[in-house]
Amino acid sequence: MGKYHHGDVRNVLLQQAENILTKEGPSGLSLRRLARLTGVSEAAPYRHFDGKDGILAAVAIDALERFAERLENVAAQVENHQERVMALGAAYVHFAVDFPQHFRLIFGRERPPLDQYPELREAADNAFDVLQRAVTSVDRSANMTLNEAATAYNRALAAWSRAHGIAMLVIDGMIVPPADQNLDDFVLGLLAEDLTAPEHH
Amino acid sequence: MGKYHHGDVRNVLLQQAENILTKEGPSGLSLRRLARLTGVSEAAPYRHFDGKDGILAAVAIDALERFAERLENVAAQVENHQERVMALGAAYVHFAVDFPQHFRLIFGRERPPLDQYPELREAADNAFDVLQRAVTSVDRSANMTLNEAATAYNRALAAWSRAHGIAMLVIDGMIVPPADQNLDDFVLGLLAEDLTAPEHH
DNA sequence: CCTATAATGTTAACAAAGTTAACATAAGAA
DNA sequence: TTCTTATGTTAACTTTGTTAACATTATAGG
């Protein structure tokens, strides 16, 4: 009689890893605990994943796909090109606030090395592509010349950086969004600030 | 005869912790290894620090002080108010690239909780204050009304976020600065991008 | 100067983690 | 059926954070 656990242990492990990550973050995700909670031997995960990094990579890819999906949904709902870029920035931060542990896993120090997990790099690039396409469409709508469009990539990087910086500082507790204001509005305000010209409003 | 290690073990431990951090990052900083490298018993650090978080906090405070110092130096060297904000952003990123491990320790997940180490929070606030003062001086030079100046804090947050986002994405390998360009110039370019108005140059 | 007490060391032990080796069983192809 | 591979298991090894129990030094008060 099979005292062995069978079935798709891999998927069960992944799902359980998701649960642990959400509740306790990447540091709380211990292979042994994961195995115990899943009801499987402590060495079983090594049959399905390339050690701890392997599991982290799998979870990170999953998270990145949902992240990109969410960004695409937002992008599809906003008609105006410039508003779309802003909305994406807000959605970016919103995701980080909703799923700080996933966000940290995706971009933080415990993310497995990108060059060791090509699918991970690909998933990350996909998310950035959504932002880049939005920025490019702004540039096109402004009838930019080809020469000017060459900087479109830089403009996308700038948009990405702003959203990323806000997201990081917020989930790390360095920036505390005002309690009496909608998070998205707060973020949109920060994204719209122009540092070189203080005569706004 | 004193087979016991004596002298200011605390300082030696701190210095050694600095070395390890620089070479291997916060994860490589193990208390036992630190003690061994310092030539002291494996439990000795607990006499001088409040466990691992205690040491991390001490190192982080040190790093933050040098970070703030560097920012202040840059701020003092630039006359023009607006250029000063930009230069600070570039210096912010430059520090992150020069000392990625320190930067990660300061802002990342393994930083001990701010509310548990008041001196740590103070050191972090100091660094941000440099940015905030620079932004405020731009606003003042533009003859802002008091009402408008109320948003100065938000403008400082925006400046901070941009620099922070670029720094994070660069040291995490998501943004790769062009090899044929000066790092500061690249950063200044990103900081100056205005997302809502593509008609530049 | 002597002695009680606090500060600073030490060694030894504990539990938890990542990982691997050695072995056991199930499933499928030949 | 039988050989091979995939998938489990248990047991061990190393490292880490932490604490307890004990040893030594420094220092303050008499």
UniProtKB/TrEMBL annotation, chains A, B:
Boundaries of every HTH tetR-type domain copy: 7-67
InterPro entries tied to this protein: Homeodomain-like_sf, HTH-type_TetR-like_transc_reg, HTH_TetR, MT1864/Rv1816-like_C, Tet_transcr_reg_TetR-rel_C_sf
DNA-binding region: 30-49
Gene3D superfamilies reported for this sequence: Tetracycline Repressor, domain 2
Key words of the record: DNA-binding, Transcription, Transcription regulation
Record GO terms (molecular function): DNA-binding transcription factor activity; transcription cis-regulatory region binding
Pfam families in alphabetical order: TetR_C_33, TetR_N
Name of the protein in question: TetR family transcriptional regulator
Organism the protein comes from: Thalassospira alkalitolerans
